[in-house]
Specification:
By secondary structure, the chain is of the alpha+beta class. The chain folds into three domains: 196 residues, Immunoglobulins (Immunoglobulin-like, Sandwich); 126 residues; 39 residues, no CATH class. It is built from seven helices and 20 strands. The strands form four sheets. Strands 2, 4, 6, 7, 9, 10 and 11 form a seven-stranded mixed sheet that branches. Strand 6 and strand 7 form a beta hairpin. The longest helix has 25 residues.
Length: 380
């Protein structure tokens, strides 16, 4: 399922909106930027550039010693090539901006993607041969993404970088500006300051043993039931027809009334719905590795129950109750789970006034057990 939320940074680069200047002040700023590079911009010769510079120095010495016009013309061509390389590189970056965009959800141990969006704001000239360095702080991964094809004026390109988060928590991805050796490869120009983006990484899934006894199921059925869209008998809604819907579900009278095909939505069959209550006191979770196992177990258990329409909600310590009816509610709960830490508070939070409450406790040296109504229903 796709997460509707997206982590995204602000635009950066010579073409970013905050850096656009008009009139005389803007012209003066652009001219001064060509003489004194702004912060974050650097020109460095490449290996080929150093060879060309040494060759120019040698030709210069030989030209002054011999007075040969051919050597002076050769020196002029080399210096003109270096100057033209710098001008074309500046024109290549002009009007170009970029930003970082994360595509959640990110899970520990599973590959996730970060995108670099590049926009060419120039009206006539394309942008060529730009690449970016990316790295993550917690996972300690480094990588590069390249603009392999030209970017036409007023067009947007997306470069994807795939990495694997090491663990749950807040991951910080950084982009260290744009780099290009366009056009001749003599000079390497770096533009832009470091751009960072914080990402929420969920715990990785874990294998567990479901031991839902008949007593626990009978206890669960006494509480609230999950009522969601499914193939039951109770009509709960009408919606527009979509490709792939069965024709037997079309409500012809309602379709004739609104002059558009309407499909009936039924409630799914009633199932036992649980409510998760998490306590993170240091008195309960003394071992950090066991606490990490607890977070992984809760995520896996909650995700499986949600897919079966058997998850009513969750609460963590004394925080507000989360009623989980949609995937975005589940994602919000997982975001809190990703940054969950052991609490040093001694007081025991009051249990929410909910039915079918599932609690979690340590089991043995490293295991975790889930209880519902005093009955063990799962272990991990």
């Amino acid at each position: 399922m796709a997460d509707p939320r997206t982590s995204i940074s602000s635009w950066q680069g010579p073409g970013a909106p905050p850096e656009i200047r008009r009139g005389v002040s803007g012209l003066f700023k652009r001219i001064s930027a060509m003489i004194v590079p702004p912060r974050g911009q650097r020109f460095l010769p490449t290996a080929t550039g150093y060879i060309l510079i040494l060759l120019a120095v040698g030709i210069c010495i030989a030209a002054f010693n011999t007075g040969s016009n051919i050597l002076f013309i050769s020196l002029s061509l080399i210096l003109a090539g270096l100057l033209l390389s710098g001008i074309l590189s500046w024109v290549n970056f002009r009007g170009t901006c970029w930003r970082l965009q994360g595509e959640p959800p990110f899970r520990a141990g599973e590959k996730g993607s970060i995108c670099v969006e590049i926009f060419n704001g120039k009206k006539m000239l394309p942008t060529y041969s730009i690449w970016f360095r990316l790295k993550t702080a917690m996972s300690r991964e480094n990588g590069r993404v390249f603009l392999e094809h030209r970017l036409d004026p007023q067009c947007l390109a997306t470069l994807e970088w795939v990495f694997e988060p090491a663990g749950r928590g807040i991951e910080e991805a950084t982009l260290s500006g744009a780099i290009s050796e366009f056009p001749f490869g003599f000079l390497r120009k770096s533009v832009g300051r470091t751009l960072s983006l914080k990402l929420i990484v969920w715990p990785r899934r874990i294998a567990y043993d479901l031991q839902e006894s008949a007593v626990a199921q009978q206890f669960a059925l006494q509480g609230e039931s999950a009522r969601r869209v499914g193939q039951g008998e109770d009509l709960i809604n009408l919606r527009n027809y979509q490709q792939g819907d069965s024709q037997r579900l079309i409500h012809w009278k309602a379709s004739a009334r609104v002059r558009r095909l309407q499909v009936r939505q039924f409630a799914s069959e009633n199932q036992s719905a649980y409510f998760f209550f998490l306590q993170t006191s240091r008195k309960i979770w003394r071992d950090d590795e066991q606490f990490e196992r607890f977070c992984r177990f809760v995520l896996t258990f909650a995700e499986d129950f949600f897919q079966e329409s058997r998850l009513a909600g969750a609460a963590i310590n004394d925080l507000p109750v989360i009623n989980i009816k949609r995937y975005i509610d589940l994602a919000y709960f997982f975001d809190q789970l990703a940054t969950l830490k052991v609490s040093d508070k001694d007081q025991k939070p009051a249990m929410p006034l909910k039915h079918n409450i599932v609690t979690f406790e340590p089991y043995g040296r490293s295991g975790v057990v889930a209880y519902a109504g005093g009955q063990k229903i799962a272990t991990a």
